[in-house]
Task: structure prediction
Amino acid sequence: MTNQSYTTSFTVDQSPQEVFDAINNVRAWWGEEIDGSAGKLGDEFEFRHQDIHRSVQKITEFVPGRKVVWHVSDARLNFVKEKSEWKGTDIVFEIAFKDGKTELRFTHAGLVPAFECYGGCSGAWGFLVNDSLRSLITTGEGKPIRKEKGMVK
Result:
């Protein structure tokens, strides 16, 4: 059986450590409404966007320059019937240096097509990872979700 969890990847010229550092600068690429810390193993942070989305992530793996895993310990998605769809899922960032470039593979393990939010959530992750995080890595400027405006494209 193949893994149907949402996955995307890209490569950049920056070092694995630069990619790792950008991932952990969550406010700069995911959203302004982040409370808590994402700087070391065991840290927890909460993401909120208006009354639409709230989730709590705990860092369960933290290997500098190689891997970060966030376990979603709580979630409330007000735009779907099953509001806690994300609860118990893992958000995984795997970094590899290949042929002089750094590859970032992002997987939201447990975000599968059977989830009502899969279409909207995978689209949001696509923008946040492939556009906002990638921009933060390559230019120093991400495109996080703004408090009032939503995603900046």
Observations:
- Helices lie at 16-23, 26-29, 118-139.
- The chain has one domain: 6-139.
- Strands lie at 6-12, 34-36, 44-49, 53-63, 67-77, 90-98, 101-109.
